[in-house]
Amino acid sequence: MVLTLENCTESDAPRVFALVSMAFGHEHPYIDAVFPEHSTPAGREAGGQRMLGMMLTDANTHFMKVVDSDTKPDGSGNEILGIAKWNVYDNSIPEEAELEGDWWKEHGIGDTEEDRREYAKIIFWEYLVERRRAIRESGGNLVSLDLLVVEPQHQYRGAGAMMVQHGIDIADRMGVETVVEASNYGKHLYEKKGFQMVKFVSLDNIPEKWASRKKQVFYWMVRPKVAVETK
User: Fold this and answer.
1) Is the dihedral of CA 104, 109, 114, 119 positive or negative?
2) What gap in Å lies between CA 176 and CA 62, rounded to an integer?
3) Is the pLDDT of residue 78 over 80?
4) pLDDT at 72 over 80
């Protein structure tokens, strides 16, 4: 069983989102709000379309996958075990856009369509505060790990470490910092790869009408830049 790291292709988008949905489950308020009903067939289809849109339109985005030649049920191999979405900013400060789309009209239960959209927009904006600040303060020279997921039954085989190392190598070649909003599940891996916890973040700036909902929390972690050697 040999694991290999490859670039994702457009045809991988549905599998990419399926892995995101399976890995996060319903323990991550940000994922649940931004990708409504992501565990249903309709929600998975919509999420796959959105992943494809990111691949096609975001020049700063690099989708990577780890495949195993021995895992596909039909014997053909190359099943995708995990994916990473790296954002590489090379003298680039993207527009701080709000969350857009009509994903909450056809997908999502509870509340009204307007409430679901409003909550998703707020949590989307608040979740990215630290990252946006880091991009600005770096002058648009930064590497950010946006997503890292490995299918639950294939965790602890080294796939996550391979994908993290890929982004770190890019950052080191650029001589820039690497950042991530880490969950409890990923924190230990990032620490092993040289990330340092800067702060524990709880998204408390949420309107009172949603105060009873589970709070989104994460560890804001930064891996210091490595000086680029010159000859």
Assistant:
1) negative
2) 17
3) no
4) no
User: Rounded distance, CA 196 to CA 114, Å?
Assistant: 39
Reported as a single tens digit per residue, the pLDDT across 174-207 is 999 999 999 998 999 999 999 999 999 999 989 9
The predicted-structure confidence for 41-68, as pLDDT tens digits, reads as follows 999 999 999 999 999 999 999 999 999 8
Residue 183's CB is within 10 A of a number of other CB atoms, namely 16
3-state SS, 62-109, equals: EEEEEEECCCCCCCCCCEEEEEEEEEEEECCCCCCCCCCCCHHHHCCC
Largest CA distance in the chain: 61
Which residue do the tokens 């700036």 mark? 205
Packing angle between helix 129-137 and helix 113-127, nearest 10 degrees?
40
The CA distance from 81 to 55, in Å, is 19
Mean pLDDT of the chain: 90
- Nearest alpha carbon to residue 190 among 214, 229, 222: 222
* 20 contacts: CB under 8 Å, gap ≥ 6: 31, 35, 38, 47, 51, 83, 147, 149
Report the distance separating Cα 35 and Cα 110, nearest Å: 14
